[in-house]
Amino acid sequence: MKVSYDQRTDILSVILRDDAPVAESDEDKPGVVLDYDAEGSLISLEILDASTRVSDARRIEYQLTG
After folding, report:
1. Which of 34, 36, 60, 66 has its CA 20 to 30 A from that of 15?
2. Closest to 36 in 3D by CA, of 47, 44, 28
3. Strand ranges for the chain from DSSP E
4. For residue 9, what are the CA distances in angstroms to 12, 39, 47, 56?
5. pTM listed for this prediction
């Protein structure tokens, strides 16, 4: 998994799988773009205008549970 934030475009990207090409994109909610592979599995998501939608787009916390 890869997470990146582009300050210039203000887009936060979460790539779940980078080994599959995007077959379809869907903006299910305004400003949230979901990308799917040919089998319909979610492979990435983008949050547009991220600085207005998340607490701090430049800070990432990663937590394992269980």
Report:
1. 66
2. 44
3. 2-6, 11-15, 24-29, 32-36, 42-47
4. 9, 29, 11, 15
5. 0.84
